[in-house]
Amino acid sequence: MDDKVNYTLVGAFVLTLSALLIAGVLWLSAGLGGRDAMDPYQAVIQESVAGLNLNAPVKYLGVDVGKVDRIAIDPQNPLQVRLHFLVKRGTPIKVDSVGVLKAQGLTGIAYIEISGGSAEAQALGPGPDGAPPTIPFKPSLSARLENVLSSVLANVDRVSNNLNAVFDADNRAALKSTLADLASVTHTLAGQQAAISAGVADAAKAARLTARAGEQFGPTLDSIQESAQAVKRMADVTAQASARAGEAADTTTASLQTISQQTLPDLARLMAELNQLSASLRRLSEQAAGNPSSLLLGSPTPTPGPGESPP
Would residue 66 count as lying in a domain? Predict the structure, then answer.
C-alpha cells in the first residue's frame, strides 16, 4: 500500500481555498458583490461628530441605505465638519430632506439619519460645479440639549449675580431692620387685640344698621321715584300747553294782521265821511238858529257889494 502524500496537490488546494476566502471577504465588504449601485452625497455639520466613525451606517427613516466613507474638518471653516457618504441609488432623497446625527442605544455609536422629503418635491441634484449633492443637517438632540442647558445656566448665573447685588451688606441690614420693626408692630397689635375685636364688632353692628336703614329707605326711594315721574308728566303737559298757546298766539297775530290790512282802511274812510257829515250838520244848525225861515225859503240873496249889480 502506497501511503505517500502529494504535498504539491495539498499546497495547491490550500492556496486555492485561501484565495476563494479572500475573494469572498472582499466581495462581501464591497457591498455584496456590487449588486447595489451607490451615489455620493455630502453634508456640513456645525457640531461635534464624536462617536461617528468611518463606515458608520446611513439610514433613511430607520432603513440602512448607505455608509459614511469620509470625515474631515471643513477647510473653509474650522468650526464645521464635512462628511462624505454613499447612499444606495434610488433612495428618495429630495430637496426638502434633512439629516441629523443620532446615537444608537447605550453604546453611543453615532450614525446618520435622513428624514423628510415630500412626494411632490424634486430629487436632490448635484451642485453647479459637479460636486456631490449636499444634504442639509439640523442640530442633533444632544446639540439642542446642550444649547438649552447653556442658556439655562447663563440665566441662572445672571439671576445669581442679580441676587448677590440685591442682597448686599447694606440691603441685608435694611431688611433686618425692617423685620425688627415688623416684629414690633406685630407685638403692638397683639397687645391691642381686645380693642381690635371691639372695633370689628362695632363695624359689624354698623354694617347691620346700614343694611336695615337701606331696607327702610327702599320705600322712600320708590316714593321719590313716583314723584319724579309725576313731575315729569306735569312738565310734559305744560310743554304741550305751551305749544298750543304758541299756536294760538300765532293765529291771533295772523288775524290782527288781516284786520290791520283789510278793515282799518275802510274804517278810516268811514270816520272821514262822518267828520264831513258832522261839519255839515253843524253849519246847518248854526244857519237855522240865525234865520229859521231859511229852512223853507232857502238862503237869502247876499247884498251886492260896491260896483256890483243886483242879480
Answer: yes
Long-range contacts of 125-134 (CB under 8 A, 24+ apart): 131/42, 132/39, 132/40, 132/41, 132/42, 132/84, 133/41, 133/42, 133/93, 134/41, 134/42, 134/43, 134/44
Look at the chain and report how many structural domains it folds into. Answer: 3
Q: Any idea which residue has 432603513 for its cell?
A: 63
Instruction: Read off the C-alpha cell for 185.
Output: 408692630
Confidence grade of residue 164 (pLDDT, cut at 50, 70, 90): confident
Closest CA to 114 of 88, 142, 146, 149: 88
pTM of the model as a whole: 0.43
Length of the chain measured in residues = 311
DSSP 121-158: SPBPPPPTTSPPPBPPB---HHHHHHHHHHHHHHHHHH
Per-residue pLDDT tens digits for 267-278:
677 677 777 777
Q: Tell whether 103 is covered by a domain.
A: yes
Query: What's the whole-number mean pLDDT along residues 10-39?
Result: 76
Category of 116 on φ-ψ map: left (φ > 0), alpha (ψ -120 to 50) or beta: left
Mean pLDDT throughout 31-56?
Answer: 81
Cβ(1)–Cβ(53) below 8 Å: no
Distance CA 258, CA 256 (A): 5
One domain, residues 42 and 56: yes
Between CA 287 and CA 278 the distance in angstroms is 14
SS3 4: coil
- Give the bridge partners for 109, in sequence order: 104
For residue 311, how many C-alpha atoms fall within 13 Å in the half-sphere facing its CB? 5
Kindly state whether residues 139 and 40 are assigned to the same domain.
yes
pLDDT of residue 1: 44
- Containing structural domain, residue 35: 28-145
Number of neighbouring beta carbons within 10 Å of residue 200: 10
The answer to whether position 193 is within a domain reads yes
